[in-house]
Inverse folding.
């Protein structure tokens, strides 16, 4: 290996498409069921939830963008935590991302992709093989270089936005528009407070993945300028799409019908176009999930590559190798294999619930990190500063703590499992620390 550094050949467009492509996956198609189930089949609080979650996620993006501007290095969140809180906590954040979060969600998306393939083809026995094949193929394509992964992301992102726009237009043009959008807020006997908690958790999953784009900073030509723009612009675009498409869903079918539909988007298209429309949206969902899977493989391998630079990771010298295409080939191979093992479970919700809690601990640490860096290094040159400081970071922190608290009390077993896997990184760090010394 003549070069063990990733090439700086990504720009604003690649970062934007990676964020949008990574965030828009399965959530927008499937989560309306959970949202309107929580409201008792009423539309109002669900729509308010999409607006509120969008505002909160934008606040989170505005906050983390400051760290992205002042620490423009490959690895993103893990590197921020390492520089702010020290090597050990930084290692643990990278550990949980590479052994659970990225492979878990990559596997979950591979399973959803395979589920849609089964629906369209009827070949149930191919579910797991298709999921694993998708993961391994995307891992290989990304090993051909960051431009290859970026091209896949750009194409899939464009395709999924076209599909989403088509659903929105068809909904508003062919839908009758006689269903209530904002009232009633909740069904009779449903608590708005507890309902909003469930709604936000569901919607935050739909927004999950926006922070992963920070892992590409080391490959960007001008990360200090382009990465904050990609984060804020990408989240804002996704939030607008989510809100509009959910209004278009209600334009066609009422909220109580969406609450009882396993695939709300398919129900909407079936209503206005019939079974053929359902097939079309099924293909659209596959394209959307394919792009999201690619985004997690693309960014997750960069986090593992950055973690492998740390002498505390076993086999780090192997995993940090760059191939002839200037891609982290060994990291991609490792992530592909681990993701495939997770995919053997065939469980989408279990994998997502298991993976998301642990990474939110790291995200909240980043929110606090902006405030810590402002106090410790007030004179540090910042090409971007979070607006309305410290109000914006405080909003992000409160929302992050809400996510953690809600998951801890509603999915206690899975949350504790994630914590256990995170803590397993400590003996690994300690063992390797003794070897290094």
């Amino acid at each position: 290996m003549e070069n063990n550094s990733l090439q700086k050949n990504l720009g604003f467009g690649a970062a934007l498409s990676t964020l949008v492509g990574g965030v828009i996956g399965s959530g927008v198609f499937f989560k309306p069921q959970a949202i309107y189930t929580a409201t008792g089949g009423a539309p109002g609080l669900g729509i308010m939830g999409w607006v509120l979650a969008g505002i909160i996620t934008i606040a989170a993006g505005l906050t983390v963008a400051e760290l992205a501007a002042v620490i423009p290095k490959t690895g993103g969140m893990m590197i921020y935590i390492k520089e702010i809180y020290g090597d050990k906590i930084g290692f643990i954040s990278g550990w949980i991302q590479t052994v659970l979060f990225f492979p878990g969600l990559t596997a979950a998306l591979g399973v959803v992709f395979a589920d849609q393939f089964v629906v369209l083809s009827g070949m149930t026995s191919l579910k797991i093989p298709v999921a694993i094949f998708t993961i391994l193929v995307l891992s290989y394509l990304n090993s051909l270089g960051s431009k290859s992964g970026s091209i896949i992301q750009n194409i899939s992102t464009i395709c999924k936005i076209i599909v989403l726009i088509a659903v929105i237009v068809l909904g508003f043009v062919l839908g009758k528009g006689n269903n209530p959008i904002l009232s009633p807020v909740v069904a009779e006997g449903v608590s708005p407070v507890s309902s909003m908690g469930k709604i936000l958790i569901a919607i935050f999953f739909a927004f999950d993945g926006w922070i992963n784009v920070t892992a590409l900073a080391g490959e960007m030509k001008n990360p200090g300028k382009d990465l904050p723009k990609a984060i804020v612009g990408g989240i804002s675009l996704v939030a607008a799409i989510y809100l509009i498409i959910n209004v278009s869903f209600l334009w066609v079918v009422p909220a109580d019908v969406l609450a009882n539909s396993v695939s709300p988007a398919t129900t909407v298209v079936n209503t206005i176009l019939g079974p053929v429309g359902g097939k079309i949206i099924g293909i659209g969902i596959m394209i959307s999930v394919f792009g999201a899977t690619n985004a997690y493989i693309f960014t997750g391998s960069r986090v593992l590559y950055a973690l492998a630079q740390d002498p505390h990771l076993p086999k780090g010298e192997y995993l940090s190798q760059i191939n002839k295409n200037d891609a982290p080939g060994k990291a991609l191979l490792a992530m592909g294999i681990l993701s495939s093992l997770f995919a053997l479970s065939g469980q989408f919700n279990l994998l997502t619930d298991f993976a998301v809690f642990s990474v939110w601990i790291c995200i909240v640490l980043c929110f606090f990190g902006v405030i810590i860096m402002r106090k410790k290094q007030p004179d540090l040159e910042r090409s971007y500063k979070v607006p309305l400081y410290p109000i914006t970071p405080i909003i992000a922190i409160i929302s992050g703590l809400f996510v953690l608290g809600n998951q801890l009390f509603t999915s206690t077993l899975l949350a504790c499992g994630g914590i256990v896997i995170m803590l397993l990184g400590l003996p690994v760090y300690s063992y390797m620390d003794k070897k290094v010394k």
The chain has a mean pLDDT of 87. The two ends are 27 Å apart (CA to CA).
